[in-house]
Amino acid sequence: MVEKIEFFIPSTNGHNRLHTIMWKSDCPTLAILQISHGMIEHIERYDDFANYLAEKGILVVGNDHLGHGKSVTSHDEFGYFNASDSSKTVVDDLHQLTTLIKSKYPGIPYFLLGHSMGSFMARRYIMTYGNELDGAIIMGTGQQPALALKAGKLLVHLISLFKPMTYRSKLIEQACFGTYNNRFKPRRTKSDWLSQDTAVVDAYIQDPFCDFTFTLNGYLTLFNTLSFIRRTQNIKQIPKSLPIFMVAGKEDPVGNFGKMVRKVYNHYKKIGIQDISLKLYENDRHELLNELDKKQVYADLYTWLKKHISS
């Protein structure tokens, strides 16, 4: 039987509390998987996957990032990361949870999974705290050209001359996500790019915790994170012995349909990561854990984890 425990931890920003969920079964804990969720979603959406792993003896834990899920106290806080160096703060929050869980379960193999924006945060995490992990799963990731990121930051700066950092810009939203649905015809909703499973897409659209536009602060956090993780000097900080598993859908626009995922994978191999593997799933879109073949994805991730628990 899986027990689902909800609690709050303080954010490293010194102000907010972070909603956290832990999934634990009554069988012996073989390993721990911490999840870093994506943009405009929340940790509760990983419930099915977490239950699957917990039943196999893998404790799963994750927090709602700043500006997401039940870590917000009012609708105005959605999409706003309340910190001066917000990209670093989100990663430090993840690390704080790691430290807490490790103190309760010392000596247990510890892994991190990051999806989408959460994969960007996970990539920054392994550049900073990678030696504290036994492995990392990078899911639904991507990479943006340096010029595009500079343009994005400039646009945020220009708008911020006239609007506060809490302003929600439809212009930036369109620039970031406007083309994501173009590949999928006939277009049914604006979120078709998330999954082939229409029930998943509809549930996402109807979820009040997934219904907001990022603030200027939110987009700047995203752009700063993407800038940080693409720099070779930062990538070189990843421990060479850290096992990494990159997974994405071949029809995922965030990774430019596999191209940018492979580019990141090749870059990591080039700098000397010793145990790194890549799997691209045919026909799958952005949310692998919510795709039509999700049970296969679950099984693949469990197989990888099990292999690296024993090693």
Automatic annotation (TrEMBL):
Positions of the Serine aminopeptidase S33 domain: 31-293
Organism domain of life: Bacteria
Gene3D superfamilies: alpha/beta hydrolase
Database matches in InterPro entries: AB_hydrolase_fold, Hydrolase_4, MAG_DAG_Lipase
The name this protein goes by in its record: Lysophospholipase
Species whose genome carries this gene: Candidatus Cellulosilyticum pullistercoris
Lineage of producing organism: Bacteria, Bacillati, Bacillota, Clostridia, Lachnospirales
